[in-house]
TrEMBL record:
Superkingdom per UniProt: Eukaryota
Organism: Lingula anatina
Name assigned to this protein: Alpha-tectorin-like
Transmembrane segments: none
Record keywords, A-Z: Disulfide bond, Glycoprotein, Signal
Keyword Cell inner membrane: no
Amino acid sequence: MKMKNAPSTILLLIGLFTAKSDASFPSSCTCFAHGYREEIVFESCDGAYITFGGSCSYDLMRTCTPDGLDNKPPFSVVVKAGYTTEFDNKQTFVSRVTINFENENVVMDTRGGFMVNGMIETTDYFGDNFNVTRVDRPEYSLIKFQTHFSLRVLIHIGARSHKIRVRIGRHYQRSLCGLCGNFNDETADDYQTADGENVTDLAYLDRQAASEEIAKSMLVQEHEQELCEPIVNRPSPHQMLEAMIDREKVFDIYGSCAKEEDEIEGNAQCNVTLENHPTKGSFANCSKDLDDDNKLKFVEACSAAYCAGKSHRAKERNVCYFIEALSRVCRENLKPVHNWCMPMKCPAQKGCSKWEQKYD
Ligand SMILES: *[C@@H]1O[C@H](CO)[C@@H](O)[C@H](O)[C@H]1NC(C)=O
Ligand SMILES: *[C@@H]1O[C@H](CO)[C@@H](O)[C@H](O)[C@H]1NC(C)=O
Ligand SMILES: *[C@@H]1O[C@H](CO)[C@@H](O)[C@H](O)[C@H]1NC(C)=O
Ligand SMILES: *[C@@H]1O[C@H](CO)[C@@H](O)[C@H](O)[C@H]1NC(C)=O
């Protein structure tokens, strides 16, 4: 079973949002950013994830107060994202990291170069309070930056995903802002919308919208003039549905259904216009507006997904992803459908406002 197209990406991303349980507190804050297909995945110090596809400069980690405190000099780490299009696939990556602290400025490029205070350095750099070194390993190369106040930034160079790791000591707890989160040992509140909603509490599609809002709020002001796209165009829900029901792709992902009883049950779950469907005609008005051919393909693709689920729960969940995409289309067409999630026994909690996080 190949897993490489849209729905599997969604599943993967949902898996990525799985919260860490924090029994023991780490001695330092470690945060990651790396390009994954069309998006950059960020992991905060407290273990929350956010993904978005913008290509601008974003605050990765910085001190929230401009003056710093005691033994905590203020600093900022900014990532600049970029993307290339290869074989029709957009690849997002981190193109450079800029670090500012104590009147020093270091820029590290994921292609391998780095600059200290505007000067290109061709060898390792050793300053009074910080150094920048290159590390070559057979499998990969790194640039390593470290300061006397425990800030360490490591970038993979030349690699496709351009993984970035930022680390800072525990004395900076609760004084950090940016995409690395607030480092307060609380996973839920690292990514919050302007309304104070925790992104980890939202359902997949709402989470995407919230992630984009947060990405925009993390844009670095002085880079506003640079040529970049704050958010790479995401497919509209219509296009998502079309992608989901693309027959070849669906069979490529799920294979065709081997069990006849699964096919029958899949059809019964996926055809929202059936008289005895659990949603009891809620989709009727919306369904009238949809193209017959698309409706047929939707049922076929959705039931293939049902069939592919390895457990009963997984089968139900696969159907729920399809129905969720359908309900999104209905909402976009101004025929919103409410209360489909509970009757469908979708793997969600809190009255279907919170989806279960683990896919299996
Ligand atoms: C690099 O910087 C760190 C932090 O200031 C310091 O502990 C370390 O000894 C330095 N390494 C070298 C080789 O200068
Ligand atoms: C967000 O998460 C934090 C930490 O768990 C919690 O205190 C806060 O109430 C949450 N906010 C909302 C709106 O649920
Ligand atoms: C469908 O539309 C009609 C007319 O606008 C409305 O009366 C009815 O409640 C709608 N049905 C559903 C299930 O939303
Ligand atoms: C879904 O159910 C309706 C109503 O019974 C039926 O007309 C339609 O052909 C079904 N669609 C599929 C793809 O089975």
